[in-house]
Amino acid sequence: MDEETLEQVRSIVASIPPGRVLSYGDIAEIAGIRSPRLVGRIMAEDSADLPWHRVLRSNGTIAEHLRSRQLELLRAEGVLADGARINMREYRWDG
DNA sequence: CCGCTGACTGCGG
DNA sequence: ACCGCAGCCAGCG
Asked: Which Gene3D superfamilies match (predicted)?
């Protein structure tokens, strides 16, 4: 695992403002890496100190083992779900 | 080296 | 809306 990309990904996630979200693919693109899965892996390893709940799938859905917790955290900062789906066009962070 | 797995994605049927 | 599939990177057996 490349230490630099790891730090890069982490800093991008850390910079997402409250009430906004990014997809794994968005972060991969910004970080200049080819695989969104790598972003997911990095998040899975250790994201406790990051606003990890602001990262979700490109279509606005969330992996099921995180779904209820994540939707709750998002709701607390004004990101409302239409059922199990977040409207990305509305909440995606432009930077 | 091979195959499988996952906080993923876009395209096609 | 629901599949499946190819591409993707890294770790594990």
From this structure: Winged helix-like DNA-binding domain superfamily/Winged helix DNA-binding domain
